[in-house]
From TrEMBL:
Protein name from the UniProt record: Beta-glucosidase
Entry keyword set: Carbohydrate metabolism, Cellulose degradation, Glycosidase, Hydrolase, Polysaccharide degradation
Family of the protein in this entry: Belongs to the glycosyl hydrolase 1 family.
NCBIfam families registered for this protein in UniProt: BGL
The UniProt record lists the keyword RNA-binding: no
Pfam families, A to Z: Glyco_hydro_1 (PF00232)
UniProt EC number: 3.2.1.21
Enzyme class of the recorded protein, top EC level: hydrolase
Domain of life: Bacteria
Family annotation (PROSITE patterns): GLYCOSYL_HYDROL_F1_1 (PS00572)
Catalytic activity: Hydrolysis of terminal, non-reducing beta-D-glucosyl residues with release of beta-D-glucose
Active site: E377
InterPro entries in alphabetical order: GH, Glyco_hydro_1, Glyco_hydro_1_AS, Glyco_hydro_1_beta-glucosidase
Length: 471
């Protein structure tokens, strides 16, 4: 399905016909993709690749608990072994260097580096120190996310993100990491996708810790954002040279019709997905429309919180995957109306590069103080198979080209975008979908841990080689 070339070329036509860059494979000479200071890299996250969950003093995380709970993750998969990156990191660094990747976005597992009393776990810390030092030696720009969802279970046992104290514990963790690792990190991101932590974790329960209550979601979000805001000055004090930011997933919502009700539904979709996070960060206030959508869910906010949360950022990380077509639900909200006959990925997500461009230009208009942007994740899952030693993931090549073209268009339209990290370097544990959904440009055979470079990785390497020759 995903590798069906005719499906891909059919699906290419509508999206590409809107693109001024008809063949983004060879972007024109004035494309931002050739700029020296534009960074092209790949991303991963600790729980999704590391494995070694019981080694060297690592404590359990909420994802160990959640994935061990029957029925929570497809096929009962867990991150216990994942890509065994904890043991194979040297070869994995060689691999990413061999592809010519200029940047690498990774995350630190909080339960690996701190014990329950807040004291450092040296063995865990040394793992990241070695990894980051090696990346620096190899000239790779390092983006480090402090929280990519693996909350220590002992903090969840005390209420997790529903407990305000977790925000202060996060600031302690950020303090320790930035004191220990300053000099090896080019950019710190406090949180990955607080929307997913708050909504999927506490609002609908699809992710760890698996609670389902809208009021919990807004309160968890507030504490996540507070954690972020408390960490920023700490990171700055310990590591003034690096950049500090946060990573948000953003969603494009389009209206199913021209009716005012459907237009409003699309607007509300974007309030719920984007403004819920970006307004507090960039305007210092929650969007009131969120509480029209979810009446009675206003979080408890203490005096001074919004000022802490809206501390200036050096960068905003944007993760983009797809758009959602919506209609009015007849009341105050929206409902999904999946479009027929559009190109989709193994996740069922629509391939819609224009959404990335339109969101970026929209944010640039809405937020006068929009910081420089990095696309910190973008990519797709496909049902990739190794056949005669090759993985022919043509749809992914086309996907990456079209989304890079959309980034280029947004830059031309005036958005300050400094780089792009594809998701992901290698196939990995895709949360509630386990190992079935493959997002990597490198294939992982989980029974042997063999890595096989997919055609998309060959394409990326070729593109990066060309970039190197030009810049
Ligand atoms: C994002 C996550 C990332 C990965 C991709 C597919 O929401 O940040 O870890 O799972 O989706």
């Amino acid at each position: 399905m995903a590798n069906d070339a005719s499906a891909v070329s059919d699906a290419l036509s509508p999206a590409v016909s809107n693109n001024s860059l008809v063949d983004p494979f060879t972007p024109p000479a004035d494309s931002a993709l050739w700029r020296k200071n534009f960074l092209l890299g790949a991303a991963t996250a600790s729980y999704q690749i590391e494995g070694a969950v019981n080694e060297d003093g690592r404590l359990p995380s909420i994802w160990d608990t959640f994935s061990a709970t029957p029925g929570k993750v497809l096929a009962g998969d867990t991150g216990a072994i994942a890509c065994d990156h904890y043991h194979r990191w040297e070869a994995d660094v060689e691999l990413l260097v061999s592809l010519g990747l200029e940047g690498y976005r990774l995350s630190i597992a909080w339960p690996r580096v701190m014990d329950a009393a807040g004291a450092p776990n040296r063995k865990g810390l040394d793992f990241y120190r070695r990894l980051l030092n090696r990346l620096k030696e190899k000239g790779v720009t390092t983006f480090v996310t402090l929280y990519h969802w693996d909350l220590p279970q002992h903090l969840e046992d005390r209420g997790g993100w529903l407990n305000r104290d977790t925000a202060y514990r996060f600031a302690d963790y950020a303090d320790l990491m930035s004191r220990e690792l300053a000099g090896t990190v080019d950019a710190w991101a406090t949180l990955n996708e607080p929307w997913c932590s708050a909504y999927l974790g506490y609002g609908n329960g699809h992710h760890a810790p698996g609670l389902a209550n809208d009021r919990f979601a807004t309160q968890a979000m507030h504490h996540l954002l507070l954690a972020h805001g408390l960490a920023i000055p700490v990171l700055h004090a310990n590591d003034p040279v690096s950049q500090k930011g946060i990573v948000a997933n953003v969603g494009r919502g389009t209206a199913n019709s021209d009716s005012a009700a459907d237009q409003r539904a699309a607007h509300l979709f974007e309030v719920q997905h984007n403004a819920w996070i970006l307004d507090p960060l960039l305007k210092g206030a929650y969007p009131q429309e969120l509480f029209e959508l979810w009446p009675g869910t206003e979080p408890l906010v203490l005096d001074g919180d919004m000022r802490i949360i809206s501390a200036p950022l050096d960068f905003l990380g944007v993760n983009y995957y797809f758009r959602t077509n919506v209609a009015s639900d007849g009341a105050h909200g929206f409902r999904d109306v999946p479009l027929e006959g559009v190109e989709r990925t193994q996740m069922g997500w629509e391939v819609y590069p224009d959404g990335l461009r339109d969101l970026l230009t929209g944010f640039n208009n809405t937020y006068q103080n929009l910081p420089p942007v990095y696309i910190t994740e973008n990519g797709m899952a496909s049902d990739d198979q190794v056949i005669d030693g090759r993985v022919d993931d043509t749809q992914r090549i086309s996907f990456l080209k079209r989304h890079l073209a959309a980034v280029d268009q947004a830059i031309k339209a005036g958005v300050d975008i400094r780089g792009y990290f594809l998701w992901s370097l290698m196939d990995n544990f895709e949360w509630a979908f386990g190992y079935e959904r493959r997002f990597g440009v490198v294939h992982v055979d989980y029974s042997t841990q063999k890595r096989t470079i997919k055609r998309s990785a060959e394409w990326v390497a070729k593109f990066l080689k060309e970039r190197k020759a030009r810049v």
